[in-house]
Every structure is written in structure tokens, then in C-alpha cells.
Amino acid sequence: MSEAEKARKSEDSPRPVEMSTLPTVNSEAKEPTRPTKPPLHPAFYVISWIAMSSGVILFNKWVLDTKNFRFPIILTTWHLAFASLMTQILARTTSLLDSRKTVKMTGRVYLRAIVPIGFFFSLSLICGNKAYLYLSVAFIQMLKATTPVAVLLATWSLGVAPPNFKTLGNVSFIVIGVILASFGEIMFDLTGFIYQVTGVMFEATRLVMIQMILSSPDFKMDPLVSLYYYAPVCAVMNAIVSVFTELPTFQLDDIYRVGIITLIANAMVAFLLNVSLVFLIGKTSSLVLTLCGVLKDILLVAASMIIWGTPVSGLQFFGYSIALGGLLYYKLGSEQLKQYASSAGRSWNEFGTNKPATRKLVIVGASVFTVFLLLCGLAPTYAPGSVKASSEYLKSLLGGAAAAAAPKRKGT
């Protein structure tokens, strides 16, 4: 075929129709990311835990003492039964308890570990709530400062660790401070003192048993998962004890006097304490946890002085200050304390340079708070009539709010 014929044939052949191309999506282009919701500031979790932890203690004291609900074991049983129900609901509707799936829990482990640990947990709760009937919240918090000492002694007694006299010397400041605070207690009651000290011993034994039996990573549990396993068995144990101790004298009038809504709210606050603790542990450091505990104890002492007019002597202030200082030294150590103090000093200087007015405001607020604590502590001694009147007025306000929320009985 000649070149001319090839050219003519190519001209006669039909040309492909050009299709209009539509714009296509660039597969390599990334989709615009939606703005993520900013996480909550750690201060939110700190404030929530302090509020819940303080709220449970003050709420229990108010129900047991002020509202004259003299059944601490029944109240503890109600808290545990409510917690058992709530943990079961959360396990089926949320992801808060998903970590329980990593716990290798069997029937044998439950009977050999959870039940005996739950036994001491029940005893610590019973003795702790019994103490509210006899002692002030302020003095109870001072006695609770001895918990690390009790844990140390239980560790040695059960053979978990050999005795260390250097460590014993470190915790001796806690013991000395609490002894001074006990001698300075104006409303000392031996029965309440025995209940509280016994409760601290049971709690220390429980913590050491957890270290002995459930120290394996296969049994690592956060506070909410622990409540999921411990609450049912503790509720049963407390219920059995209440049958022989408090139930024979218990009447429905006792519930109506406090109010059903009040009891539900009391149990809800106790349960939310464990929820807030889970988030606090996950969002903060061990230093923050230690400082939060110290701050909570100080605020509870102040709240006890304000709400119930609890007299706190100068010797108690001095002894409790020594105990808190010893507690910080024991938990953090001297080297860490020096590092934290140095870092805090630099941050405080930078804060004063950047915001001098705010720094002055903080100093004035701290000074006013300190003077307020001192005046509240001395007021019941020098002006008992005024303090009692103010305390009764505050109690009447709280009691009126609870009475309005409680359902009225028929025929009354």
C-alpha cells in the first residue's frame, strides 16, 4: 500500500468522539478535619474529686448526727447496694467499666481474694461510719492521717516487707502530730476514738491484702472496677451484721424522718466519688493526688468548724500541721520535696512578674482564710453562745431544704 493510500484511509476512518470529562474528586486530598472538642482542664477533675470526697463525709455526718439517723451500718449497706446497682448499669450501657474485661476473675479468685478483702472493707466502712456518731468531722480527719502508719505496720506484721527503722522514723512525725491533736481535742470521746482507730486498722489490712493477693497485672483494677466486684459482697456482709445489730430497732419512721430523696442523694454522692476518682487518677500525677488529699482534709476541718461549730484548739492546729507535714514528707520524700519546692518558687516568681495584681489577691485571700480558720477555732471557746446560734441557724437551713425535698407521709 502506497503512502498516499495510507493517508487517505486514515482520513476516511471515523475519529473517536471526544467525551466531555467531568471534574473528579482528588482522592489524595484530605477531608477537612472537624475541630475536636478541647479536653477539660485537670483542675475540673481536682475540684470534682474534692467536692465529692468532702461531700460524702459531710453528708454522712449530717444524716447520722444532725438528722439523728443512728444506723450507720444500714446506711453503709444502702450505699453498697446502690453502688452494686449503678456499676451493673454502667457496665451494660457505658465504656467506663470495660477495663474489667482484662481482669482474669474466676470463681476461685473471687472466693479467695475478693471475699476476704471485702470483709475487711466492710469492717472499715462500719467502724468509720460509727465514729461519726461520737466524734467531730475535724477530729476524724486528723485521725485518718495515721493511715500510712497503719499500712506500714500491717506490711511488716503480714511479712510483705521487712521492718525499716528509717521509714519508721519518717512516719513518726505523723504519729506525734496526731497525738498532739488528740490531746488538744476538746470534745474527745473514747468510744468514737476506738471506732475510728479500728477502722483505720481494718483499712490498712485491706490495702496490704490487695498488695499481697492482687498485685499481679492480671488483677489490676481502677476504683470503679474494684467497686464493681467488692460492692455486692460487702453489701451482703453489712446486711448480715445489721440484722443482728441495728435492724431490731429500725423503723420506717427513721427513713421518713431523713427523707427518701435525701437518702438517694446521699448514696449517689458516695457513688460519684468513685467515678470522679477514676478520672482524677487518669488525668493527674501522684503529686497532685497527694496534695489534693491534704487540701481536702484542711477544707473538711474548716467545714466542720463552720457547719457544726466544732471547737479546734491551738494545740490541735499545731499537731495537725505536724501530721500533714509528716504525711507529705513520707509520701514524696525529701528529694522530691526539694525539687517541687524549687519549681514552685520559680513558678510563683514568674506568676508575680506576669500578673502582680492577681498574685497580691491570692496572698490576701490566703491570709484571710488563715485568719478565718483561727477565729473559727477559737470562737467556740470564747463565744460559745454566738457560735451555737449560728450553727443552729445553718442546720435549720439544711434541714428545711431536706424536709421540702422529702415526700410527705399520708395522714400527717
Automatic annotation (TrEMBL):
Keyword list, A-Z: Membrane, Transmembrane, Transmembrane helix
Ranges of residues in domain Sugar phosphate transporter: 43-330
Location, primary (coarse class): endoplasmic reticulum
Record's compositionally biased regions (Basic and acidic residues): 1-15
Subunit structure: Homooligomer.
Stated name of the protein: Sugar phosphate transporter domain-containing protein
Source organism (scientific name): Endocarpon pusillum (strain Z07020 / HMAS-L-300199) (Lichen-forming fungus)
Organism taxonomic ancestry: Eukaryota, Fungi, Dikarya, Ascomycota, Pezizomycotina
Similarity remark: Belongs to the TPT transporter family. SLC35D subfamily.
